[in-house]
């Protein structure tokens, strides 16, 4: 019998309502493991090149891993993937919470969804059974109403629901998938893919508990891990303040994206960081399945203008910056209100905030006028204008209809030089980290198969502070965050593989290697104890590399290449103020670094994995 996984993949065709179960071999599971690796595999196998992401020809994957649902902190994440409607490239997004483990308990390791339903439906997957149910009564409803009605209809408050809001139904390309109101597959527009399939939600419930090859060893690792979480400084900080501490940390070092990436220091940072958060809107801490970190933050405020409800979660760092410093907004209740609207409507706060910043800069530069906005001014620092724009985007009304297409397409439609203020990579809006201060992260943004994504790559500063964690990779000395040299490329290449482990094995970055409480040695022990496989760090990192290479092959098939492996033009300009004043990313140095990365990775000059690399990773089936 398999340990750690069910050995069952559920395939559903929404067009004809049929479903069947695939039972892959143990060798297949050991090769692909789960998460982003499962996603890459199925998208390459199932999709025809050039398919419209919003057509019934797209394939939607919900993927757990061989570790999802193990009783260890952070071992709870799952992936949602499809061809992205935002970028046209490989699309994936991970989330924590309880949905992933519950899908495993319901009897399946992944769900592969094809076709399009003729009317709104939701999936009900429970104890191995599958139903396609009518969702007409909840179509058009927000995520809160959707969750409540599905639980009422099924007669079980403990059903776990991954749903889309009205933004996903309206096919906003950066709409997201939300589970249990406060956990998000936020990036790459997976909500729009669900909407295009008339799929409102996936509900899961199960009684099967995941078995382990060595349960006592798993318990011992869990005790050690939780004890280390209580003392390991990065984890202690997350438990104390969630991710909001990053507002001050990045502002103090000149890397807090401000005024649409023009600046790296925000004068209002202390009014949106943790101290202000704790004093004004903090309600309680939330967590994910079996996790002792408790990094989630819920907010509450009794206010006529900006009422906040803890049921809908609260803003994390990326949102605090996207709806705060990026748009020069230091009104924390208004920021949290904008976040709450995004959560209920099902819209990625990173892309939404970047779209607002783009619109505000275009307005102040005279590219957009009141004639375009229905008489509304769009100035930086206007919190109410930000909220209004977010609502317009979610409903695809007026100027919001243009902005809801993402900043790349919005700039193409607006014209008039607006592309100078449209910041994205491969069509996806930028996470809130300034690459002028983290050149390794800048490489990660440029090379990520999904477009810029902050959870796929290493943060230079964090690695510099936690060099002891990197010794098993052969990184023996800190690499300077501002350098773009051969040492940085080697560091990035190794760090990318290490970071990618988490997306393949379904582990939260805040609990795992290479920065937080888990160590590489203990992770290997955990995989062995759960699965019974005699594995190694070498094999685990190859799973990560294989996943990245498969996603790269997917993108080259879709026409992406070296021209898309770039950073935003503003990062080639000198930082005007702050601790990083004068710092820029030199275009030639950066291109040399990308070229060297191709060479280290076994890719040719066009960024395509070579035949030898595909053979090396057991991917001969991808050789053309």
From TrEMBL:
Keywords recorded for this protein, A-Z: 4Fe-4S, Iron, Iron-sulfur, Metal-binding, Oxidoreductase
SMART domains: AFOR_N
Keyword Membrane on entry: no
Pfam families given in the database record: AFOR_C, AFOR_N
Gene3D superfamilies listed in its UniProt record: Aldehyde Ferredoxin Oxidoreductase Protein, subunit A, domain 2, Aldehyde Ferredoxin Oxidoreductase Protein, subunit A, domain 3, Aldehyde ferredoxin oxidoreductase, N-terminal domain
Gene Ontology molecular functions: 4 iron, 4 sulfur cluster binding; electron transfer activity; metal ion binding; oxidoreductase activity, acting on the aldehyde or oxo group of donors, iron-sulfur protein as acceptor
Cofactor or coenzyme needed: [4Fe-4S] cluster; tungstopterin
Record's keyword annotation contains Iron: yes
Domain Aldehyde ferredoxin oxidoreductase N-terminal: residue ranges: 5-208
InterPro entries: Ald_Fedxn_OxRdtase_dom2 (IPR013984), Ald_Fedxn_OxRdtase_dom3 (IPR013985), Ald_Fedxn_OxRdtase_N (IPR013983), Ald_Fedxn_OxRdtase_N_sf (IPR036503), OxRdtase_Ald_Fedxn_C (IPR001203), Tungsten_al_ferr_oxy-like_C (IPR036021), W-dependent_AOR (IPR051919)
Family as reported in the entry's similarity comment: Belongs to the AOR/FOR family.
PANTHER family documented for this protein: ALDEHYDE FERREDOXIN OXIDOREDUCTASE, TUNGSTEN-CONTAINING GLYCERALDEHYDE-3-PHOSPHATE:FERREDOXIN OXIDOREDUCTASE
Protein's name in the database: Aldehyde:ferredoxin oxidoreductase
Species classification: Bacteria, Bacillati, Saganbacteria
């Amino acid at each position: 019998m398999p340990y750690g996984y069910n050995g069952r993949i559920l395939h559903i065709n929404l067009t004809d309502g049929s479903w069947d179960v695939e039972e892959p071999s143990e060798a297949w599971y050991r090769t692909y493991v789960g998460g982003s690796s499962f996603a890459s595999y199925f998208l390459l196998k199932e999709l025809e090149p050039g398919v419209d992401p919003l057509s019934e020809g797209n394939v939607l994957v919900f993927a757990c891993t061989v570790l999802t649902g193990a009783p260890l902190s952070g071992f709870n994440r799952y992936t949602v993937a499809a061809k992205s409607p935002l970028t046209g490239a490989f699309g994936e997004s991970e989330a924590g919470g309880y949905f992933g483990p519950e899908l495993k308990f319901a009897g399946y390791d992944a769900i592969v969804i094809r076709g399009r339903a003729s009317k709104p439906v939701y999936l009900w997957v429970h104890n191995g059974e599958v139903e396609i149910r009518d969702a007409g009564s909840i179509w058009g409803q927000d995520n809160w109403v959707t969750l409540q009605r599905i639980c009422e209809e099924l007669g079980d408050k403990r059903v776990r629901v991954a749903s889309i809001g009205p933004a996903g139904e309206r096919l906003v390309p950066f709409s997201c998938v939300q589970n249990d109101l406060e956990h998000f597959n936020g990036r790459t527009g997976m909500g729009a893919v669900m909407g295009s399939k008339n799929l409102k939600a996936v509900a899961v419930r199960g009684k099967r508990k995941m078995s382990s090859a060595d349960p006592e060893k798993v318990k011992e690792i869990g005790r050690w891990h939780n004890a280390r979480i209580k003392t390991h400084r990065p984890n202690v900080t997350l438990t104390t303040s969630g991710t909001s501490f990053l507002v001050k940390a990045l502002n103090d070092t000149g890397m807090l994206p401000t005024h649409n990436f023009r600046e790296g220091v925000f004068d209002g940072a202390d009014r949106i960081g943790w101290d202000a958060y704790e004093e004004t809107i903090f309600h309680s801490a939330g967590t994910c399945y079996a996790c002792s970190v408790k990094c989630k933050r819920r907010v509450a405020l009794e206010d006529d203008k900006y009422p906040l409800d803890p049921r809908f979660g609260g803003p994390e760092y990326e949102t605090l910056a996207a709806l705060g410093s990026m748009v020069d907004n230091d009104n924390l209740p208004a920021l949290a209100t904008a976040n709450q609207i995004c959560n209920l409507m099902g819209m990625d706060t990173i892309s939404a905030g970047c779209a607002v910043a783009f619109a505000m800069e275009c307005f102040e530069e005279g590219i957009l006028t009141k004639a375009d906005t229905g008489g509304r001014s769009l100035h930086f620092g206007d919190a109410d204008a930000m909220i209004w724009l977010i609502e317009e985007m979610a409903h695809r009304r007026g100027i919001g209809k243009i902005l809801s297409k993402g900043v790349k397409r919005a700039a193409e439609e607006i014209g008039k030089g607006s592309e100078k203020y449209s910041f994205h990579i491969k069509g996806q809006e930028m996470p809130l980290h300034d690459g002028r201060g983290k050149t390794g992260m800048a490489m990660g943004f440029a090379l990520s198969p999904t477009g810029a994504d902050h959870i796929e790559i290493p943060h230079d500063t964090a690695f510099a502070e936690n060099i002891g964690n990197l010794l098993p990779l052969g990184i023996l000395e800190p690499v300077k965050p501002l350098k773009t040299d051969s040492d940085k490329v080697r560091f990035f290449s190794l760090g990318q593989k290490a970071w990618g482990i988490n997306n393949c094995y379904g582990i939260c970055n805040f609990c795992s290697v290479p920065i937080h409480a888990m160590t590489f040695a203990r992770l290997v022990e955990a995989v062995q104890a759960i699965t019974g496989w005699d594995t190694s760090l070498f094999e685990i990192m190859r799973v990560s590399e294989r996943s990245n290479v498969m996603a790269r092959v997917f993108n080259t098939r879709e026409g992406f290449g070296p021209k898309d492996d770039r950073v935003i033009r503003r990062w080639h300009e000198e930082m005007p103020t702050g601790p990083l004043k004068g710092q820029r990313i030199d275009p030639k140095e950066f291109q040399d670094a990308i070229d060297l990365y191709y060479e280290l990775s076994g890719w040719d000059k066009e960024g395509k994995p070579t035949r030898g690399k595909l053979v090396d990773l057991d991917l001969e089936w991808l050789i053309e």
